[in-house]
Amino acid sequence: MASRAGQPGPCAPYSARPPLRFANGRFWRSLSKEKKSGSRWICLGKVSGVHGIKGTLKISAAVAPEIFLSVGEVEIGGARYEVESATRKKRQVLLRLKGVDSRNQAELLIGEEVRGDRGRFPPLPEGEYYWFQLLGLPVKHAVEETYLGELTDIIPTPAHDVYVVRKDGREVLLPAVEEVIVEVNLEEGVIKVLPPAGLLETYAD
């Protein structure tokens, strides 16, 4: 089944579509480094400002508010804070943290990344995946078992996502539809595809 991955955000594209689509941006590359390092604490967004006088943070978020609530605890500037509330306001998340009770305290965190434990992300319906689960996976031909490259980017479009597969400096764009993305096996760490006839030849040197 084709995966439905989500919109990218200020640090990396973690949210899924639907129902957790939120924000956009092009900072997914930081995710690949975190994933390869094995880090469970990944970037959820960045503190962009302060809302009100009681310490509420404005977050340029890579994920929906539900993710902040699910992880329950975030790391900012090397310190960890319990999440009290997270709500959406336009294209940002308003985040309340235990122990951050004044505007002065909140202002000290502006510019810092907000990180959370990806192991506490809520589960998704069958056939949907977080981008951090897919980026960096090898892509193989489902029939020939040949290695086609590494999934390096996911481009959202109104019709469907497009997977960018790179090998030896060459990129192949694959539509993320069931007829093409025939298997995503996270246990084995591989994506198997059936490219449309003639597609690979189009991208050949």
Automatic annotation (TrEMBL):
The keyword Chaperone applies. Residues 131-199 form the Ribosome maturation factor RimM PRC barrel domain. Gene3D superfamilies: PRC-barrel domain, RimM. It comes from the Bacteria. GO terms for cellular component: cytoplasm; ribosome. SUPFAM superfamilies: PRC-barrel domain (SSF50346), Translation proteins (SSF50447). GO terms for molecular function: ribosome binding. GO terms for biological process: ribosomal small subunit biogenesis; rRNA processing. Its main location: cytoplasm. Pfam families: PRC_RimM, RimM. The keyword Nuclease does not apply. Keywords: Chaperone, Cytoplasm, Ribosome biogenesis, rRNA processing. Signal peptide: none annotated. InterPro entries: PRC_barrel-like_sf, PRC_RimM, RimM, RimM_N, RimM_N_sf, Transl_B-barrel_sf. It is found in: Cytoplasm. Residues 44-115 form the RimM N-terminal domain. An accessory protein needed during the final step in the assembly of 30S ribosomal subunit, possibly for assembly of the head region. Essential for efficient processing of 16S rRNA. May be needed both before and after RbfA during the maturation of 16S rRNA. It has affinity for free ribosomal 30S subunits but not for 70S ribosomes. Binds ribosomal protein uS19. The PRC barrel domain binds ribosomal protein uS19. Belongs to the RimM family. This is Ribosome maturation factor RimM. The gene is rimM.
